[in-house]
Amino acid sequence: MLGMVVLTYILASVFAIAGMGAAGVLIPNYIAIGLSVHAAMLLGLAQNTAELTVATAMNWKKGLIEWRNVARVFVPAALFVPLGAYVNVHTPRILVLVALALFFLFAIYRMVTGGVAESKDGWKTYLLGAIQGFTAGLIGVDASPIAIIAFSYLFRNPKKVSANTAATALGVSGVTLLTYALLLPRIPIATETLLTVATAGFLGGVTGTLLMHRVKPPYVRYTTMALLSLATVEITAKILTANVPETLHILSVGVVVSGFLAFLCGMGRHRARRPFPSP
């Protein structure tokens, strides 16, 4: 129990800096220590909700959250969470991982290149909100990297991207937790375990958000990019070692490789467009 609590606190602290819930990383660890998949999923979402609740409250107090923009992402996300949860049982997991890998690569690209959307491009945030909700329902976590993409179109300040992502992820985590609680049969989780893990997530949210407020904006961006990069590597490793039919495996690996090449091409074009410093 102590190891699980310490791990929850540390990861919640780090992920809170980027405005992301730590459930996506914690759930596999909960499974590794003996919890069932669905118990680990519900425990991870409960931890997410505790972590992001305090992060959102602290960011709101700092004036970093713009609720109208949060609504533009959260409302379509909330509508599509149940659909994703329903489709969950009919979709090969490797295809979900491929989609996540591509989204994570694009999120990293957006964090590097920046650029705010024009008013005529506002539909992008609604679309990304719907994708976040569908993905959250599909995989049982908040899919906050997709919200990072949406808010990178709205804000140049990485702290605002982080704060508004956390607010959206909080709502998506709550809806996802409620959806799975209704869809799944009753799962016995000791109340003591639930409260202890949620408390660790809450304290991690406090620590991470305090750090986010105190460091310079570029360091928030670097932390977010590092977490997205690690998540991309982890997902890619799962795709490469997946035990699926050969044709599906080759197709999945090919799509991820193509996405990585497109990412490198986009980064190269971005660097080529940057002005050279004067001699």
Automatic annotation (TrEMBL):
<dbReference type="InterPro" id="IPR052017">
    <property type="entry name" value="TSUP"/>
</dbReference>
<feature type="transmembrane region" description="Helical">
    <location>
        <begin position="6"/>
        <end position="23"/>
    </location>
</feature>
<feature type="transmembrane region" description="Helical">
    <location>
        <begin position="219"/>
        <end position="241"/>
    </location>
</feature>
<keyword id="KW-0813">Transport</keyword>
<keyword id="KW-0472">Membrane</keyword>
<feature type="transmembrane region" description="Helical">
    <location>
        <begin position="70"/>
        <end position="87"/>
    </location>
</feature>
<feature type="transmembrane region" description="Helical">
    <location>
        <begin position="193"/>
        <end position="212"/>
    </location>
</feature>
<keyword id="KW-0812">Transmembrane</keyword>
<feature type="transmembrane region" description="Helical">
    <location>
        <begin position="132"/>
        <end position="155"/>
    </location>
</feature>
<protein>
    <recommendedName>
        <fullName>Probable membrane transporter protein</fullName>
    </recommendedName>
</protein>
<dbReference type="InterPro" id="IPR002781">
    <property type="entry name" value="TM_pro_TauE-like"/>
</dbReference>
<dbReference type="Pfam" id="PF01925">
    <property type="entry name" value="TauE"/>
</dbReference>
<comment type="similarity">
    <text>Belongs to the 4-toluene sulfonate uptake permease (TSUP) (TC 2.A.102) family.</text>
</comment>
<keyword id="KW-1133">Transmembrane helix</keyword>
<feature type="transmembrane region" description="Helical">
    <location>
        <begin position="30"/>
        <end position="50"/>
    </location>
</feature>
<feature type="transmembrane region" description="Helical">
    <location>
        <begin position="247"/>
        <end position="266"/>
    </location>
</feature>
<feature type="transmembrane region" description="Helical">
    <location>
        <begin position="94"/>
        <end position="112"/>
    </location>
</feature>
<keyword id="KW-1003">Cell membrane</keyword>
<feature type="transmembrane region" description="Helical">
    <location>
        <begin position="167"/>
        <end position="187"/>
    </location>
</feature>
